Structures are given as structure tokens and as C-alpha cells.
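Here is an idea for our session: we take a single protein and study its fold together. To get us started, please write out a protein record for me. Once you have written the record down, we can walk along the chain together.
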Amino acid sequence: MDYDFYKKKAEIRRRIEKEGIPHTYISCNFLMRYLLPSLVQSGLQTPPRDKVKIFGDGNVKVVFVKDCDVAGYTICAIDDTRTLNKVLYLRVKTSRQCLFPESADRNLGVENWKEA
């Protein structure tokens, strides 16, 4: 993972808040189309063949969502005053991916990948 990317995102968010710019942050964790095919391996577009790098202990729960779902909720949030100057967290109720249950940890996903 590119931790500098996340650091820069945090800096931008803090600056927006400091300047008083109206905003709504959309927090959706991981987009399926971009990160799931590579098991969240930076720089890869397909699953690795021999080893997977897991940050931390791998037991942190993650949620994968479709980018079209994020787009739909973002459009709805534009005119909803309840989301002004807030963070909208997107979470799924059911999983469409058999590799990762709804809110699986990375270790479980990698174990399922090894068995496949």
C-alpha cells in the first residue's frame, strides 16, 4: 500500500475542514474492481502467484464495494443536507464475492485464495 497516498488524503481533508469549505467525504474502504482481483497487492492487477503481503496481522475487517454503488450513494448525498460536512460510510449487508465474506479480514481472504 502507498501510505504516502493516505497521508496526503488526510492532509487535504484537514485543509478543507480548516478552510471551512462545505464537503461530504465518502468512505467506502476498498473498491472491488480495483483491489479485489490482486488481493490488495499494490501494483498488481491479478492475484500474486506465490506470496501475499499482509499489512499488520491481517485481522482487520475490510469491506469491498462496487464502484457503481459508491457512485449511486454519492449522487444521493449531493442533495441530502444530513451529509453536509460529514463522512458518509458505505457498508454492505451481504456479500456477492465468495472469496471475501461481507466484512472479512485479509487473512481469511488469503486462506480462501490458497484453497482455490
